[in-house]
Specification:
By secondary structure, the chain is of the alpha+beta class. Helices cover 20% and strands 28% of the residues. The protein is globular.
Length: 97
């Protein structure tokens, strides 16, 4: 299992994200809407309306990684306020994974 908390600070991008978006589109959302530094070693998580999968965007110093997780059973409880990105604690990240 990948431990996202070991990569750096983890933020969830609240609200629904079109899961068809790729790296460039997701990076644009973070930069334009939240003014967060994409190159700071943070992990940004995005969730679609189905709530059974999420994408993670991470800069490793040489390029972006995009990770995708699909849950076989259950759904995520994801904040719906589209105007914010929230930082998760290490414990919250471990529960998510």
């Amino acid at each position: 299992m990948i431990n996202l908390a070991e990569l750096g600070r983890v933020f969830i991008v609240c609200g629904n994200t079109d899961m068809r978006r790729g790296i460039d589109s997701l990076a644009y959302i973070v930069k334009k809407n939240f003014n967060l530094d994409l190159f700071s070693g943070c992990v940004f998580l995005f969730c679609g309306s189905r709530r059974d999968r999420f994408k993670a965007l991470y800069w490793d110093g040489q390029g972006f990684w995009m990770l995708y997780k699909h849950f076989e059973n259950g759904k995520l409880a994801w904040p719906s306020n589209e105007d914010e990105a929230r930082e998760l604690s290490d414990e919250q990240v471990m529960r998510l994974m």
